[in-house]
What does this fold into?
Amino acid sequence: MDEDGTMVHITFVQGDITRQQADAIVNAANSSLLGGGGVDGAIHRAGGPEILDACRDLRASHYGKGLPTGRAVATPAGRLAARWVIHTVGPVWSATEDRSDLLASCHRESLRVADELGAKTVAFPAISTGIFRWPLEDAARIAVETVRATPTAVEEVRFVLFDERAYEAFASQMP
Ligand code: ADP
It folds into this structure.
């Protein structure tokens, strides 16, 4: 809820997050911040070198050892139709260790950074559900519950799901 007591509006679309118009686009980054596969690779390809340059600057300054899991940091968005990319590092799924709070933290920290930037619309991918193998239904539950429970001035959180299965998993979390 924001200061007026208004809940953030949560929406769901199936599509490519690099094609979204939003104040900020969240990247499911890896801790190196230097690019990777999946949504990370797509964001760097579509956004161009300005994003990687800013990530290299972060590595050379505040994040010499990389960005820890569960944290978030912003860079400009290059050629994307957004002002900022908020990079966050999701946990790798583990069958033996409960890392749910780290996945929740990605969403909380991304919203905190969005508030610092003054971003009102923020697009999120399904963090950790690709290369990091988090089961889709569980990731969807954690993502949506966390956004609903986090106080923020962000007006719209848009989950952008790449395929129909992910879209259904996320959209079915709303009552
Ligand atoms: P992680 O390493 O956090 O698992 P991935 O990028 O491998 O991150 O996958 C996260 C999710 O993003 C997966 O559900 C994947 O299908 C999805 N994805 C991949 N490319 C895109 C894209 N261009 N737009 C939106 N979602 C994407």
In short: The chain has a mean pLDDT of 96. The chain has one domain: 9-171. The two ends are 17 Å apart (CA to CA).
